[in-house]
Design brief:
The protein is mostly beta strands. The chain is built from four helices and 24 strands. The chain starts with 5 loop residues before the first helix and ends in a 6-residue tail after the last strand.
């Protein structure tokens, strides 16, 4: 700032004097604050009384915190099995810290630091530990596979409850494919579908979140059970136990006529329309459709389709540019029941298509494609043989007047008695 004498200051116009005085005061205040501000450069004390608990693929450190009031966290710095320098932290509320990422039982070191709120680090305290066998090897040893309809079920235990990736290799002597299964559950079961009823060799590799992998090991040779789409030719509606879905162009039997409704033409209007006026004046959920398959079947999965067609205008020959999927009058959730006498019913499962609309009503393109392909659901277990199927609609997407649905297809073993 350029120095100015008192006489010169008095000669300035009044508004210049005020501006100059204000600027001078601001500079003085800024300088004073800067001179009074203390910068913390004092590191906290070290952690102490450290004890070590070996873990599968890592270790847990228990310790006593230093007494610094501005302590923020404790940091462990180490090199994992991939050769990467990594760190884990625990807040000042904790007195223990866990590290992982090791794939052997050799001696390793980690350095523990106490860090304050000004990010000052204490002196490091180095600790040495030997991890237990990594959990990925325990998972690998626990894996067992069993045949299922149209595929296999893969089971394993994961006592560490840490994320694992199981690479399943499937070979039939001519072709090989890889499926990747992922979970952090203690007990896990995956259904692997799309396999023919021929012998396959199954091998596995298990990987953890840090990139450590087991060696590839052969598990077993298995032949998946034969799965087929159930023939609907002989199916019939048990009208006395079913709602009336015969409003306008809709018919209840369209639900199993093997014709899936599409958007692009009113010519394949294959869906049921459950209208409240035809069912006592109210949509009294659950709305049951009971089917006699006239044979005993076994089911492990099924696919359902919503109504796709949405009437537009006569000028467009009734064809809409939009799908009717996930709209008010379509079915949304339902229960599946099985029986052999129409008296005792066994619940096969509760299912929900879900509502993918955002707050503006937009639907992701992949959800539209899912509805076009059909919503596929699997039973928790393969059913026992049964003759009668009850499809109980428990909710739609909001309409209190109508509920629509297009088609159901079952997969499993058809006509069990004939085999």
């Amino acid at each position: 700032m350029i120095p100015i004498t008192l006489n010169k200051f008095r000669e300035l116009k009044w508004w210049r004097r005020i501006a100059l005085a204000s600027l001078s005061m601001a500079l003085v205040t800024f300088t004073s604050c800067g001179e009074e501000e203390d910068v913390d450069i004092v590191p906290p004390g070290e952690v102490s009384e450290i004890s070590i608990e070996p873990l599968h693929g890592g270790a847990r450190f228990q310790y006593k915190l230093p007494g610094d009031e501005d302590l923020h966290y404790v940091e462990a710095l180490y090199t994992n099995a991939q050769g990467a320098e990594v760190f884990k932290v625990a807040s000042y509320y904790e007195t223990s810290l866990e590290i992982d990422g090791f794939n052997d039982t050799l001696a390793h070191t980690a350095t523990l630091y106490a860090v304050d709120r000004s990010r000052n680090r204490s002196e490091g305290v180095e600790v040495t530990f030997n991890p237990l066998v990594s959990h990925i090897h325990l998972v690998k040893e626990s894996i067992w596979i069993e045949p299922a309809l149209g595929g296999v079920q893969v089971h394993w235990q994961n006592e560490a409850a840490k994320q694992v990736f199981v690479y399943l290799y499937i070979e039939d002597g001519e072709q090989s494919e890889e499926r990747i299964l992922s979970s952090s559950s203690l007990d896990e079961t995956f259904m692997v579908r799309g396999l023919d009823s021929i012998p396959y060799d199954f091998s596995v590799v298990v990987e953890d979140f840090n990139g450590n992998k087991t060696e590839k090991v052969f598990k077993q040779t298995l032949k998946p059970l034969f799965e087929e789409k159930l023939d609907k030719t002989d199916w019939s509606l048990v009208s006395s136990l079913s709602v009336d879905g015969n409003a306008w162009e809709g018919e209840t039997v369209n639900f199993f006529d093997d014709v899936v409704d599409t958007k692009d033409s009113p010519a394949d209007n294959s869906y049921f329309i459950i209208n409240r006026d035809d069912n006592g004046g109210v949509l009294n959920f659950p709305l049951d459709i009971v089917i006699d398959m006239n044979k005993k079947v076994v089911v492990n999965r099924f696919t359902v389709w919503q109504r796709a067609y949405w009437y537009s205008t006569a000028e467009n020959q009734g064809v809409s540019a939009n799908y009717y999927y996930y709209q008010n009058e379509n079915m949304r959730s339902f229960d599946l029941w099985a029986s052999n006498d129409l008296d005792e019913w066994l619940l096969l499962g509760k299912f929900d298509i879900g509502d993918p609309k955002d707050e503006d009503g937009n639907i992701p393109s992949e959800k539209i494609q899912e509805a076009i392909d059909g919503h596929e659901f699997s039973l928790d277990e393969i059913s026992d043989p049964f003759r009668y199927l009850k499809f109980s609609i428990t909710a739609g997407y909001g309409s209190e007047t109508n509920v629509y649905g297009s088609e159901i297809t079952l997969f499993g073993i058809d006509d069990v008695a004939a085999r």
